[in-house]
Design brief:
single chain, about 260 residues, mainly alpha, 11 helices, about 0% strand
Length: about 260
């Protein structure tokens, strides 16, 4: 006699089951614990300073023991190094990619870079605050990586603004000063942004507004822009203006001769 299966319609066939593997559960749990670890460390470092916080404080804030925390991080310096990398090195690579996007014009690239910086500061303000407050305590290698990321971001902002000036989209401003102004405006979000109810929506709104302000700060208004970058295009515009001036002077001369 053939043994009949008691599987019901509500019980899917074995081949259709997608059970989470032990490795998958372990990875997911580690990510959750690390996220909590970074959040609590950011908060405590920002409130007490790096020197005034130890791993026991972070473990207590997480609700775990200090030995359990050692499974995820071996020292306070290592934890700070990981936080700095998240705050500076990751966004720096994204900014480099945005600045190199030749399919977008300079205004669009500047808008997207400003949005990226502002949104990151708005979404994780305590991490950026702790970075500034802990700069003097950073290990040498971490401090050098942080400064390199800062220089990279400023360099890409300057290049994008300079290209916008050359193409006539932006006013002929001092590009370094303008780049520092954009970065400073976006960084300051970490101190004044305090969402009322829905943080995600308000973070996006604040980032979009600051991105638009960054472009408005340098945008060329009330003037024609050359179709192509370079001195020849600028000379072509100048010749058009001279032709217009000559015609205007000619018309004025004929009008005056008719009146005499």
């Amino acid at each position: 006699m053939t043994k009949r299966s008691h599987r019901t319609a509500a019980d899917p066939a074995p081949s259709s089951r997608t059970e989470e593997t032990p490795v998958g559960r372990s990875t997911a749990r580690r990510e959750l614990v690390e996220t909590e670890m970074f959040e609590q460390a950011s908060r405590l470092f920002a409130e007490r300073g790096f020197a005034g916080t130890n791993l026991g404080d972070i473990a207590e804030a997480m609700g775990i023991t200090r030995p359990a925390l050692y499974y995820y991080v071996k020292s306070k310096d290592e934890l700070l190094a990981q936080l700095v990398a998240q705050i500076t090195e990751g966004p720096s690579a994204e900014i480099e990619a945005l600045a190199a996007d030749s399919d977008s014009d300079p205004a669009d690239r500047l808008r997207r870079i400003a949005h990226l910086i502002a949104h990151q500061r708005a979404s994780r303000p305590s991490r950026f605050q702790l970075l500034l407050r802990s700069e003097a305590d950073l290990p040498t290698e971490v401090a050098e990586a942080h400064r390199a990321a800062q220089r990279s971001t400023l360099h890409h902002l300057i290049d994008v603004i300079e290209e916008g000036v050359v193409k006539g989209q932006f006013r002929p401003v001092d590009t370094r000063t303008a780049a520092l102004a954009v970065a400073g405006m976006c960084n300051w979000v970490a101190w004044w942004f305090h969402p009322d109810n829905d943080p995600a929506d308000q973070e996006s709104d604040a980032a979009e507004l600051l991105a638009e302000l960054a472009v408005a700060m340098v945008r060329q208004t009330g003037a024609r822009a050359p179709e192509e970058p370079g001195p020849r295009a600028a000379l072509a515009l100048l010749r058009q203006d001279l032709d217009y001036l000559a015609r205007t002077l000619g018309e004025a001369g004929r009008d005056n001769s008719g009146k005499s």
